[in-house]
Structures are given as structure tokens and as C-alpha cells.
Amino acid sequence: MRWYQHLFWKIFASTWLVSTLLMGGLTYGLLTLSEQRHWHDVLHTRATSEAQFIIERYEDGLLFLNDPRHVRGRLSRISVQVTDIDENKELISFRRHLPPEAILSFTMETDSGKRYLVEIPIPQERFHLVRMLRFTLSIQMISVMLVAGLIALLLSVWIVRPINQLRQHARNLYDQQNLSSRAKGRLSRRTDEIGELAREFNRMADYVENTLTDRERLLQDVSHELRAPLARLQMAVGLVEQSLGEEHKSLVRINKECDYMSRLIDEILSFSRIGCETLYEPPYALSVLLEQLLQDVQPLKKAHRLLITTPSDTMMCNYRNELLLRMLSNALVNALKYTPPDGEIELKIELEGERLHFKVLDNGPGVSEELLETLMEPFVRGKTSGVSDGYGLGLSIIKRGAECFGGELKIANRVEGGFSLDIALPFDPINKVC
408 pairs with which residues across the strands? Predict the structure, then answer.
């Protein structure tokens, strides 16, 4: 997700833009209104001075009506119209036909008690781009933009922060398998829609935890319960073999199915027990584990070329031997199963910083991109021609074991063809122990 696709920036940008336009427009309008009032006061003062001069000359008999030559030089910037209200005479006129809202008018009363109406046209201002740009770069507009940005930031954080908290809880549920993750504190006590969403999330998490716990308990109980009838079935088959012989076709098929069921029960028990056992033991040599691994996969090796490379023969390891051996064995068994008999399989153990990587690389057919996303889920099997064995638990056991050790599992198709599996586990560079 790119930065501009985040909800935070969408809320911030829209809030900041709307706030800037509204507050900027309001500020511009108030400043314009203030300037108009100031300009009206200036016009009123000028008109009063001009009208007083005209009225004095009129009352002294020195002014001919509507003859501006007698006041020439006094009205160089403004035009004023003065009317004798008592006699309804225009002393001087600007001779323009303007609407009432374009005229500033007021009355004056002289010492003799006569009243006069003074009118002056209000200059009409036009929109000027330069003035708008000057206002945009003014200290008032910059202040408005900063205040709008602060409001947008606070609003974005107030909305997005609880959503990010819920997202983190959901990620813990999936990535860390932390089924106890819940939305707590003020987030769950809110009385708005976000609080309702947090409480719904908690109810959903409770349901998921109960469902998964019940599933694992069911797998354990069923697997244990199947042990007894399977053992009795194998004993009965042994008794029948004494009378019919071991090579009887039906008995061979029954033994094969019993072995299949026994291995399936072992896989289910291994999958359900991971995380419930001790994960560490006294340090042991990694080379000893690799020798055990070769012995386990030797029956499936056939004509495959198996290469193992390690950074050091003296490297020590304190992870539970049985679980780590099971993880590596499942990885190699999968590679041997899906790789042609003359293919090559490589187990590379590489040290990268504080991670020890167990990489299994083969040159088999790989898997489809659609299946790659769900292949590590329980009971999901790859569909490759000629291969029908398997239970779909091998990669699930590897993934859960890696997560219990504090590591991770990555799978991908190789560019040159084949499949790659990478188990990354924590490594202590000081004590040189994985």
C-alpha cells in the first residue's frame, strides 16, 4: 500500500483542504469587510470636508448652482453631490445614474439650522489576482494554513489510531498465533462506533480462540482414541497372517492401510502438540542432528542427489532435537517426494546476522501460485502428477515449529525451476548457539 492510499493521509488532506478554504475564505471576507468600512470612513471624511466648503460658499452667495467651476481644484479625486433639503435644490451634482447601494449618503446641519443631503459615489472595486496572491502569501493566510493543518492532524490521529490498534490485534491473531489478543483499555470502553467495533472484535476473537482450541483438543482426543482400535486391528491382522500367510493380497492391503493410518495419527499428534512441549534443551552439535536427518530420509532417497552445506561443523544448537529434526525431515521428505528420481536437492544452512537459515532447494515442478498462498495451512496438499501420498500437515508442522522458536517459514517457487523452503530461526552470535 502506497503512502497516499493510507486512511490517515486521506483524512488529513481532505480535512486540511476544507478547513483551509473555509477559514481562509472567512478571513478574506472579514479583511475585505474591514477594508470597505475603512474606505467608507475615508470617503465620509472627504465628502464632509468638500460639502462643508460648498455649503459655506452657497450660504455666502458665492456659488452658482451646478457650476463646478467655483469649486474647481477641490474635487480632484472625488465627486460629491449636495442638496438643500429644505428648498430641494441641488447645489452641485456628479450627474451619474447609480443604484442606491453604490452611493454613500448622509445629512449635515449648519449653524443656521439648515439641513443638507450629501451624496458621494462609492468606487466599485474589481477582483484583482495580484491582491489574492498577496493575501495567500500573507501572515494571516499562513497562520490559517498552520491552524488548519494542526486540526487535520489531530482529527486524523483521533480517527486512525484506534483503527491501527484493532489492526495490530488482528495481525497478532494471525501472525503470532496469539489467541489471547484483545482490544482493551479505553479502546473497548469507547461509546462511539469505534468502541462498538472493538467489542465486536473481542467477541470474534473469543469465537476464534474457542474454535481453534476445540479443534486441537478434538484432534488430540480422536488421535489417542484411534490408537487402541488400530493396535487391536494390527493384532488381528497378525493372527490372520499365521493362517493365510503374509503374502495374501487382502492382508497386504490391510497392512498398508494400517501403516497409513498410523503415520497419519503420528502427524496429527505432532501438529497438535507443538507449543505444548519444552522447546529447548542442553546444547548439542548440529552435525549430530544432520546425521540423524540423513538416516531418516535415506529410505526415500532413491537416485536423488542430496547436498548439505553448513557454515561450521562445530556449530551448537539448543532447540528441542525432536522438533527441529521433525521440521527438517518434513522439509526434505517433501522435496524428495516431488522431485524426479534423478533430481538434485540441496540443504543449505546459512548464517545471516542473528538468523540461522535452513534452506531446502529442489528442481522439481514447484506449485501453482494460487496454491502457494495456502500451502502452509493444515491438510492442504500439493497437486502434482504421480504423487498421492501425504497428509497436508508437513509444512504446517514446520511453520508452527518455526513460530514457536521465534522464527518464520518462507516458501516460494524458484526462478530457475523448482521449489524453495526457508526456515529462519533466531541465532545467538555471542554464544554461537542456535
Answer: 424
**Distance from C-alpha of 399 to C-alpha of 391, rounded to nearest angstrom:** 15
Q: Are 355 and 427 in contact (CB under 8 A)?
A: yes
* Sequence-separated (6 or more) residues with CB below 8 Å from residue 313: 287
Measured distance CA(105)–CA(117) in Å, rounded = 7
Cβ-proximal residues to 136 (8 Å cutoff; 6+ apart), any chain:
none
DSSP class per residue in 192-229? SHHHHHHHHHHHHHHHHHHHHHHHHHHHHHHHHHHHHH
Cell of 431: 554464544
How many Å apart are CA 237 and CA 239, to the nearest integer?
Answer: 5
* Beta-ladder partners of 103: 121
Q: How far apart are CA 119 and CA 116, in angstroms?
A: 10
Regions in the chain scoring below 70 on pLDDT? 1, 3-4, 62-78, 93-101, 123-133, 174-179, 219-221, 223-225, 227, 246, 267-278, 379, 381-392, 429-434
* Total Cβ atoms within 10 A of residue 8: 16
Over the stretch 39-82, which tens digit does the pLDDT of each residue have?
Answer: 778 878 888 888 888 777 777 776 555 555 544 444 434 577 78
List the beta bridge partners of residue 308: 347
- Which pTM value belongs to this model? 0.50
* Cα–Cα distance, 287 to 284 (Å, whole number): 9
Alpha-carbon gap, residue 425 to 331, rounded angstroms: 15
Q: What is the 3-state secondary structure (H, E, C) of 280-326?
A: EEEEEEHHHHHHHHHHHHHHHHCCCEEEEECCCCCCEEEECHHHHHH
Residue type, 100: P
Are 64 and 137 within 8 A, CB to CB? no
The amino acid present at 210, given as its one-letter code, is N
Strand order in the sheet with 115-121: 89-92, 81-84, 115-121, 103-109
Question: d(Cα 198, Cα 162) in Å, to the nearest integer?
Answer: 9
Q: Which of 139, 429, 404 is nearest to 270 (CA)?
A: 404
